[in-house]
Protein: Lipid II isoglutaminyl synthase (glutamine-hydrolyzing) subunit GatD
Amino acid sequence: MAEPKPIHVLQLYPRDMNIYGDFGNALVLQRRLQWRGYEPILHSYDPEDEFPEQVDLVIGGGGQDSGQDKIQQDLLRIGDRLHTLAQSGTPMLMICGLYQLFGHSFRTREGREIKGVGILDLRTEGTDTRLIGNVVAESTEFGEILGYENHSGQTYLGPGVQPLARVTKGEGNNAKDSYEGARFKNIVGSYLHGSLLPKNPAIADFLIATAVQNRYAEASQPQIDPAGSAQPIDELTRKARTTATRR
Ligand code: GLN
Structure:
């Protein structure tokens, strides 16, 4: 059998930006890549680390305002690299705190301005209200999206991005409009923890298919079912989706 082809997954700032189980997104990508016969190589990138040479997919999680402060300078330092990857169509998933910092700016409740890397055309304002709870949202691209939100920053989209989904339960980006998350090129930004990908495998498969297409110019191979497990696991996901988030 041929050696599995590597897919390099870069996880941004797992030390400071990784809450409410966001690391589950990395685990899902690893496992689903393996099921398709690829070798996932996970690079954990924290401030001052060397930026990996090969990057096929980028993920980043949420964090407190203090965590965002810790990584901000470094994020700006590697900004050009991230812009280049984004422009060339690299799939990315940014959750909550890093979703905010992929935008232009985050003005905290205290009025401090945390400059974002400006890849996504959006702005975030800190508020005294926390938006907390389960979220159900409808996306034309991915179908129903489920997750959990907990943020006091509220995000407003500019004309350069599309919303990821429209909220039917919970708040999403802010308490005013009904949008959740953002889409730009092959980037998915979202407020949803949970983690997002275990509950929403359609998004995981989009990220994987895009990474594989970009790197090897091939459609990602059909899911390999080593112990008859792949199919039942998607079935379990479906059951968990229908029971977990509707409370
Ligand atoms: N600190 C940000 C906020 O509360 C992000 C929180 C998070 O990542 N869950 O808005």
Observations:
- Helices lie at 23-35, 65-77, 79-87, 96-101, 196-199, 201-216, 230-244.
- The longest strand covers residues 122-139.
